[in-house]
Amino acid sequence: MGSARLPRHLLQAGTVLWRVHPRDVPAAQYQDRSSGSPGPYGGGRAWLSAAESEVTAAAEYLAPRATSLGTGARVVADVAGLTMSALRVDEDVRVVRRLTDRDLAAGEPDPDCRGVVRRSEVNPPDRTFVLFDGVPLTPLPDFSTDLDTISGATAVNRVLRPLRLEIPVPVADPPRVFVNYRGGDDKIAAVLLDQGFVDRLGPEAVFLGDRSMSPGTPFVDVLLDRVRTARVLVVVVGEKWESVAKNGRRRLDDPDDWVRREILVAFERGLTVVPVLVGARERLSAAKLPPALAPLAVLQHAHLPFGFAHYPESIARVVDRVIRDTPGLAGD
After folding, report:
1. Whole-structure pTM over 0.70, yes or no?
2. Which residues, in sequence order, are bridge partners of residue 206?
């Protein structure tokens, strides 16, 4: 009597799988047979482990490397150089099924199988796959996540939270540029300047309230802290900058006005303060400013000409000038 037939599972073409791997290893590269053992069905072949969900892929790789905190939570101390990637399976593949006790009791190792599907040990009942060299896979780079970045670690921790597993989130350097603007004046200029600085310095180096703070952030402390740790405050000054009022009172005359508070903190900390005049805006006049803000009127300004939104080079000129003229702004 021949051996019992091994139960099979069809992994369909187009299925997206996830895996965690060193960043210097291509996402679809199979591990050498010497890199651990994929179990009795590998037959000495190169292999690759992946899962159908991000949380299971991350947990399968990270859980064996985690340290318990004694509270039920587990932390992986070092994720430097790790990436989570998405891979698309490019053809139908039949793999050995090892999901139930009945599956485990059936059949003998099959040297011709193209992979194995099993129940995740760290996130059941999700499934994980061990695929053997030869299964065609296409990386989907738009969906990759670096685990050692602030955004990547935050995203991975969000999906791992139900498993009480986490990775360290890098500490961000404080932003070097703070974009100060008045919402009722010329927000478009502020947004485009922010994007211009981000393109040159990176998103973590530039602070713009709407972009840099997620909903629920305690903005009172965050705004003033980010001003204090910046190197330059870019003050966007449109035509209505001084005249915007609330309840019949000019906003600039209100000690609690955020534009005013941010500028005063910048003065106190000795930051470089750069007024950026927008469109047909005239120079600031000390006579029209509250005494505490009068120093703005004697600071050399930059200028965004009328129609700047249609001419990216005008934004780039202001950004380049601020970076060039502010010591240390471009980084070490």
Report:
1. no
2. 177
User: Confidence class of residue 171 from pLDDT cuts 50, 70 and 90?
Assistant: low
* pLDDT-above-70 percentage for the chain: 90
CATH number at residue 19: 3.90.175
- Stated as kind and residue range, the H or E segment containing 310 is none
223 lies in the same domain as 106 = no
Token pair 């910046």: residue: 230
Q: Where are any strands of DSSP class E within the chain? A: 8-11, 16-22, 47-51, 67-68, 74-75, 82-89, 93-98, 115-119, 127-132, 137-139, 145-146, 165-166, 177-180, 206-207, 232-237, 245-246, 249-250, 272-278, 302-304
pLDDT at 202: 85
SS3 of 217, please? coil
Instruction: Say yes or no to pLDDT of 39 above 80.
Output: no
In a domain, 331, yes or no: no
Q: Residue 105: its pLDDT value, please?
A: 64
Cis peptide before 22 (omega within 30 of 0): no
Of residues 28, 6, 37, 32, the one with CA closest to residue 113: 6
Residue 332 corresponds to which amino acid?
Answer: D
How far is Cα 51 from Cα 267, in angstroms, rounded to an integer? Answer: 53
Residue 160: domain span? 8-166
